[in-house]
Amino acid sequence: MSLLKLSNIHKSYFLGKEESKVLNGIDLEFNSGEFVSILGESGGGKSTLMNIIGGLDREFSGELLLNNEKLDHRKEKQLDNYRRGTIGYIYQSYNLITHLTVLENVMVSLDMTSLSHTERVARAKQLLEQVGLGEHLKKHPNQLSGGQKQRVAIARALASDPEIILADEPTGALDSKNTQEVLAILKKIAADGKLVIAVTHSQEVANHGTRIIHLVDGQIDSDVRLGEPDSQDKTPAKIEARPLRAGASYLSAFKHLLYNFKQNSLIIIGTAIGIFAVLLFSGLGNGINSYIQNQVNSLVNPRSMTVLSNPSGKKLSNTEAQQSMQEFSQDPTKFFISDQQLTQIKKTKGTASIEPGYQLGTYSLNYQGKNSNSSGIQSYTKAFADNNLKNGNWPKSNEIVISKQQAVTLLGNNNYRSLIGKKIGVVINWLSAQDTPVQVKTDLTVSGITGSSSASGQVTLLNYSSLRSLLKDAGARTEPNFISVNAKNLDNVNSVANSIRNQKINGKHAFAVMTVGDLLKTINTYVSLASTVLAAIAGISLIVSVLMIVVTMYMSVAERTKEIGILRALGERRKDIRRLFTAESLMIGFFSAIFALIIAWLASAALNHALYGLIKFNIVQINLSNVIFAILVSLFISLIAALLPARKASRLNPIEALSAE
Ligand SMILES: Nc1ncnc2c1ncn2[C@@H]1O[C@H](COP(=O)(O)OP(=O)(O)OP(=O)(O)O)[C@@H](O)[C@H]1O
User: Fold this and answer.
1) pLDDT tens across 534-570, in order?
2) Topology of domain 4-242, CATH
3) Where in the chain are all domains bearing CATH 3.40.50.300?
4) Which of 159, 271, 576, 609 has the fewest CB atoms found within 10 Å of its own CB?
C-alpha cells in the first residue's frame, strides 16, 4: 500500500471562458522514505501539482488517496487537518513570517500539535539546532542569509512531524554550498522515513533523490527510480496534530500589534480620545447630579414634602405636580388650603409632623431708613435644614429670619450680623377676605440670618402663628397655602407621599405632593439627559475610530496576505485567520479603553483639583459602571471594525495569498 496515491488528476485554469489545461491525467504513487524530484519545463504544471498534493488546491478532478483513504478535497475541514498533520511545505522563497523570530516561525507550526508548551519550545530549538541555527533563535528572517532562511523553513516544515515534505524549488535561490547542505538535509529527512517530493529545474538536484519524475504537457513523461529508498519503513507519526490553540492566535496578534507599534499606537490614541470624551462627560454628569443632591439635601430636610391644594381634582403626575409648584411660586394666592383639607392630611399614617405654612406676596424690610424689597415671604417649617441658618436661631413668636443679602442691604457688609436682636419694620402685601389687597405692617425682631449665595438663602421666614395673627389683625386671609409634611423616616417618604396623592375629598384628588426625591429626580433627569447628549456627541467621534480601525485592518490584511497564505498552508483554518485579525482589533480596542481611562482619570483629577476651591466638591465623578461601559464600547467598536477585514482575510484563496508579493 502506498502512502500517497494520485489517480487521474486533471486541472485546468480558466481565463474567462477559455480553458487552459495544465494537468492531463496524472497517476502517481509515492511511498515513505522516497526522495522524489519532479522535473519539467517552466509552466509545465509542477507547482500546480504540488498545490494539489499539498491540499491547497481544491479545484481539480481526480482522486488523492492517503494510506488508501480518499481525501475529499471539497471538505475544507478535512483538507485543513491534512495540511496540518500530514504535509510540511518548503518554498523557493522561504515564506517565513517577517514579524516573527526564527524560533516563533517554527513555533507557528508546533502550536498546532498536542505537545505541551515546554515540549513545543524544546522541539523547535532542537530542530533549529539540527539545521545549524541554534545560535539564531531570536533573529528575525530579514537578519538571515538565504541559506539560513531556507533552513528555518525546513525546521518549520518538520516541526509537526508530517509524513510528507513538499519542497517547491527548495534550492532555487541558494548558492551551490547552501544547495548541497539543504539537499543533504532533505536526503536525511527521507532517510528518516518521510516522503520528500521536490520540484526542481536542476538535474543535479534531482540526482540526489531516489526517483525522478518528468512532467511534460501535463502528463508523466517518465518516472525513473535511482535506487531503493534508504528506509521503506514508515515511522509512525509521533506528534498528534490539533487545531490552532486560541491562545496562540492571541499571542500572535499581540506580537503583530507590537511589531506595528507606531501605526497601532496612533490608532489607539485616536480611539482613546473619543472614549475619553464619553467618560469625561459621563463623569461630569455624575458629579453634577451628586453635587445638586448634596446641595439640596443640605438645605431641605429629605424627610419633608410639600403638599399643595390640587384644584384640578385629578391625580397628578410628577411633572404636573411640579407645574403646580411653579404656579404656586408665581402666584400663591390661588392655593388656599381649607380646614377640611388640613384635617384630612393630619390623619395620614407614617407622618412625624404636619405643619401648615404660608408663602405670601411681595414684602419690604426696613431698618433705619434703608429698604430691602422682595417677594415670597414664608413661614418657617421643619423642611428647612439647619444648614440654611448661618447665624442666630429660627424665628419664634414675633421674630423674623432674613437672608444675609437682605441684612447686608439693611446694615452694610461689615456688621450685618449685628442686626440680630434688632427690630426691623416689615410690610407684607396680601389679600383681604374679599380678595382685595391688604398691607400687613409690623415690627419684628431679627432672630437669625440665612445662608449666603444659594437661592434658598434668599428666603425670609416668620414663625407660623405670629404670621397668622398678623394677617388676622390686618383683616387679611389667614388660610395657609401649603402644608409641610414630615415622614417618620426616610424609607416611608414615598409611601406617605403616595398616600396623600391618593387622598380624595368629594371624590376628587385633593392634593399635589412634591418630595425632595421628586425634585432631585427631575433635576437629575435633566442633568443626565444633558450629559448623555454631550457624551453621545463625543461618541460620534467613535465612528471615526471605527473607520480608522477598519482601514488599518484592511491595510493589515493587504500587508499580511502572504502570511495568511503561509498560515493556511501550515494548516490554520479560516476561523483561525479570522480570529487573528479580530484579536488584534480587540486588543487595539482594549488598549484604547485603558489609555482613555488613564487620561480621563488624569483629566478628572486635574479638573476636580482646579474646581474644588470654588465649589468644595469633586465635580467629575467617573464610576465603575462608566469604566465598564467604556471598556465594553471600546471592545464593541473594535469588534465591529474587525468584522469585514477579518472575513476578507479568512476568505483569501491560500494559493493566491501565497503568491502575493
Ligand atoms: N491562477 C492561475 N490562473 C491561470 N493560470 C495559471 C494560474 N496559475 C498557474 N497558471 C498557469 O498554469 C500553468 C502551470 O503553472 P505552474 O506554476 O504549475 O508551472 P510550473 O511548472 O510550476 O512552472 P515554473 O517551473 O516556472 O514554476 C502556467 O502556464 C501558468 O501560467
Assistant:
1) 888 887 888 888 888 899 889 989 989 999 999 999 9
2) Rossmann fold (3.40.50)
3) 4-242
4) 609
